[in-house]
Amino acid sequence: VQLVESGGGLVQPGGSLRLSCTTSGFTSDNYAISWFRQAPGKEREGLACVAMRDLSTLFAISVKDRLTFSRDNTKTTLYMEMKSLKPEDTAVYYCAATGGRCLWTWARMGYDYWGQGTQVAVSS
Q: In the structure, what pLDDT confidence band is assigned to residue 19 with cuts at 50, 70 and 90?
């Protein structure tokens, strides 16, 4: 299984960004993708976990109102749109995947697969 993130870049404050996480190697749609980010000098932060089968989502409270998820028809790419970006959203964003649905422990559990990360910078 492989995961590839894309869509990072430089965004102005107040803008929005759509990140993609494309998977390969899963044999069914019964898996979940979680998004994390890590800013310099800070701990990794979980943003949300999404079940690819039906897009049911568990959110981190801190970002819930600013995130929207969608997927492609093949259920191999998950899109995360983040709006109202702030400078404090600057970080490397990672997706991670595991079989099955999202667990309530999604933000602190171990994951089988990780992407390489994509840099997001929010600045004027």
A: very high
Asked if residue 41 lies in contact with residue 34, where contact means CB atoms within 8 angstroms, the answer is no
How many secondary structure helices (H) and strands (E) does the chain include?
Answer: 0, 11
Summarised one tens digit per residue, pLDDT across range 26-66 is 999 999 999 999 999 999 999 999 999 999 999 999 999 99
Give the three-state DSSP class for 77. Answer: strand
Token pair for residue 87? Answer: 């400078």
Single-letter code of the amino acid located at 61: I
**Pairing relationship of beta strands 45-51 and 31-38 according to DSSP bridges:** antiparallel
Cα angle: 120, vertex 45, 48; to 5 degrees: 85
Among residues 26, 74, 21, 25, the alpha carbon closest in space to that of 49 is found at 21
